Amino acid sequence: xxxxxxTNPAVDERDEVNIQADAxxxxxxxxxxxQADEPNGNREAAKYRRRLRETEAERDTLTQRVEALxxxxxxxxxxxxxxxxxxxxxxxxxxxxxxxxxxxxxAELVAAAIATARTTLGIAPxxxxxxxxxxxxxxxxxxxxxxxxxxxxxxKTS
Length: 158
What we know:
By secondary structure, the protein is mostly helical. It has one domain (9-121). Helix content is 62%, strand content 0%. It is built from five helices and no strands. The chain has helices at residues 9-37, 43-80, 85-90, 107-121, 145-154. Helix 1 packs antiparallel against helix 2 (43-80). It is elongated.
């Protein structure tokens, strides 16, 4: 999953299921061919080769899932920083460069990559919401005839 496109996880899972089904079918056909070609003494070796292929296929599937989760976390951090994930990946950021030695996403490295993406692509940092003259009333309050009468009786002139 080293491509720069964001993909739909539901579609990816269906593709993985189809790939796994195809791989299992190929393994079964290969095993039948091996068993037909080999004498009975090599059945055990064929069994271990089959297990090895199954384990390698499972490992590859799990690796793809972990990479998808890591990419999703980087996308989440970019979105929280008000930057589209596509812009981050388009700026040349690579997933392995954003991970720690243990394989977890490093938020500081992602923040640095976001800053680099903003400068590289000329994206202005987000500003906070600003409303001019917030809270002020643009018109003076209107006075009623009753207020004018009270002011006259009380001796106040306006």
